[in-house]
Amino acid sequence: MSQDTVVLEVTSALPLPGRYEVNPDRVVVEPSRRLLRGRFAVRGGHLVLGVEPELELTLATGSLRTNVAGLARALTGEGGLCAAENPVLTFRSTSMVVADDRSVDVAGRLEVGGSSREVRLSGQITYADELAAVLWLKGAVLPPRRPVRSGSRIARRLAGRRLKLEVAVEFVR
């Protein structure tokens, strides 16, 4: 090897620290309960990697699509999420751990219209370079501690249950 050749060793499998913004065209946020599946559109968000990792996603409440005809309207209208008064749902991490092998554990809160639910997710940073990172997480929206007493019957039943949640997001610099 010549004197002017420099060899760089990769010391971590993690992507570069810093802030990545969500690419809204490359996002899947899918809640489900048994055979019921839905999907939300994402308005924005970010991923911060480094000493204090952080995840935030803003979902368009009225964008919910489901595999059951008419259900999305019932869940996002009056008696449900009330998309007209609450146009966004916001997820914010309260704790986030990113390991050297790119595994990720996230706990946070999903907030809409003055109420919030606890969310726990785990998964992987499946791709990362200096320009982008792809995060794939699975977990659950936990049921509330107190029974849900308002809203339509179907909205109350779903709100009182644990919902599975799958998230796949591309973030870019």
Give the tags.
single chain, 173 residues, mainly beta, Lipocalin, eight-stranded antiparallel beta barrel, 2 helices, 8% helix, elongated, TTHA0802/YceI-like_sf, Lipid/polyisoprenoid-bd_YceI
Main sheet properties: 8 strands, antiparallel, barrel
Strand order of the largest sheet: 1-2-3-4-5-6-7-8
Per DSSP, what share of the residues sits in E-state strands of 2 or more residues? Answer: over 45%
Uncertain stretches? 5-12
Number of strands: 8
Structural class: mainly beta
Quote the CATH topology. Lipocalin
User: Judging by the overall fold, what is the CATH architecture?
Assistant: Beta Barrel
Secondary-structure element pattern, one letter each: EEEHEEEEHE
Describe this structure in words.
The protein has a single domain (18-164), classed as Lipocalin. The chain starts with 17 loop residues before the first strand and ends with a strand. The protein has 173 residues and is mainly β. The protein has 2 helices and 8 strands. It has helices at 71-76, 153-159; strands at residues 18-33, 36-49, 54-66, 88-98, 103-112, 115-128, 132-141, 163-172. It has an 8-stranded antiparallel beta barrel. Belongs to the UPF0312 family. It comes from Amycolatopsis deserti. InterPro entries: Lipid/polyisoprenoid-bd_YceI (IPR007372), TTHA0802/YceI-like_sf (IPR036761). This is Lipid/polyisoprenoid-binding YceI-like domain-containing protein.
